[in-house]
Amino acid sequence: MRATAKAHTNIALIKYWGKRNEELILPTNSSLSVTLDGFYTETTVHFKEDLKRDIFTLNKEEITNIAYDRVTNYLDLFRNYANKQGVFAEVHSINKVPTAAGFASSASGFAALAAASAKALQLHLTDEELSRFTRQGSGSACRSIYGGFVEWEKGQRDDGMDSFAIQIAPQDHWDIRVAAVVLTAKEKDVSSRIGMKRTVDTSVFYDGWLESLPKDLQEIKEGIMACDFEKVGAIAEANCLKMHATTLGAYPPFTYWQDTTMTVMQTVQQLRKNNIPAYFTIDAGPNVKVLYLPEDEQRVLDKLQNTEGVSEVIVSKVGNGISYV
Ligand code: 2P0
């Protein structure tokens, strides 16, 4: 009853922003991401008959705070499914997602935890079933089951059985790069979970966001299949700006941007003026991710590293899905 799994994080090109069911983590909109090879979590889950409670370590340190509660509640899903109530587990996670880079480590974290738990309990889940389980740990994590380009279909049902991710193109379909631009920034004060809820509940711009999504999703998929970088980049950048606009229409209003966020956005726009195709996307935090093509790497990195307020630039290629160690 022991297994180790490795999962990579992902960056959304079409953002997941809002839930229709908070308990089951059912989204209001479908989303689409690229899995990244630079950042991952490796997790070992060992269910043992003699344990009195779950034990969770992250980077070799025992965790007892709210993150522990989230893990142990999540393991209950698997215990109930496998009819192993009362069998506790040792969970050891190593996180290679630099928190400063502003990637949600919950994506790779819950994907690795789900995969290792399912394997340890010999559940023999399909990828769709595993993605559905993973979704209930953290929404964006359900996309990290697969490598390459991945769509999370929101589904229609109230029970969430049709809300899971599928791969739309494998890792070797297209070699694009993502630079995570780390800013000398302070901690964010609105978590993505709270931020998306406030937006759904109060933002006067939320309907506009939802209305615009089916077209973005359809067109970006066409762009990915055709490896049309300018089409994909332009849609991703516009989609990110729309997501962030919804936060300004919320009450109380908020933004994840800092002054340096905008400086980097302007650097990217300037790269395009110099005929280098580069596009930005931003998650629920101040850091900016920049999409570009391999042949432009040196020029893109030079420009980003020399932008004021940038402390580090971390490069990633397209990554693969879950693997077992
Ligand atoms: C995304 N984000 O699609 C979007 C874009 C942030 C902005 O998914 O509440 O950690 O655990 O389902 O997945 C971050 O939210 O939220 C996120 P929960 P999650 O990647």
TrEMBL record:
<dbReference type="InterPro" id="IPR014721">
    <property type="entry name" value="Ribsml_uS5_D2-typ_fold_subgr"/>
</dbReference>
<dbReference type="InterPro" id="IPR041431">
    <property type="entry name" value="Mvd1_C"/>
</dbReference>
<dbReference type="GO" id="GO:0019287">
    <property type="term" value="P:isopentenyl diphosphate biosynthetic process, mevalonate pathway"/>
</dbReference>
<dbReference type="InterPro" id="IPR029765">
    <property type="entry name" value="Mev_diP_decarb"/>
</dbReference>
<feature type="domain" description="Mvd1 C-terminal">
    <location>
        <begin position="181"/>
        <end position="306"/>
    </location>
</feature>
<comment type="similarity">
    <text>Belongs to the diphosphomevalonate decarboxylase family.</text>
</comment>
<dbReference type="InterPro" id="IPR005935">
    <property type="entry name" value="Mev_decarb"/>
</dbReference>
<dbReference type="Pfam" id="PF18376">
    <property type="entry name" value="MDD_C"/>
</dbReference>
<feature type="domain" description="Diphosphomevalonate decarboxylase-like N-terminal">
    <location>
        <begin position="7"/>
        <end position="165"/>
    </location>
</feature>
<protein>
    <recommendedName>
        <fullName>diphosphomevalonate decarboxylase</fullName>
        <ecNumber>4.1.1.33</ecNumber>
    </recommendedName>
</protein>
<dbReference type="InterPro" id="IPR020568">
    <property type="entry name" value="Ribosomal_Su5_D2-typ_SF"/>
</dbReference>
<dbReference type="InterPro" id="IPR036554">
    <property type="entry name" value="GHMP_kinase_C_sf"/>
</dbReference>
<keyword id="KW-0067">ATP-binding</keyword>
<dbReference type="Pfam" id="PF22700">
    <property type="entry name" value="MVD-like_N"/>
</dbReference>
<dbReference type="GO" id="GO:0005829">
    <property type="term" value="C:cytosol"/>
</dbReference>
<keyword id="KW-0547">Nucleotide-binding</keyword>
<keyword id="KW-0443">Lipid metabolism</keyword>
<keyword id="KW-0444">Lipid biosynthesis</keyword>
<dbReference type="GO" id="GO:0004163">
    <property type="term" value="F:diphosphomevalonate decarboxylase activity"/>
</dbReference>
<keyword id="KW-0456">Lyase</keyword>
<dbReference type="GO" id="GO:0005524">
    <property type="term" value="F:ATP binding"/>
</dbReference>
<dbReference type="InterPro" id="IPR053859">
    <property type="entry name" value="MVD-like_N"/>
</dbReference>
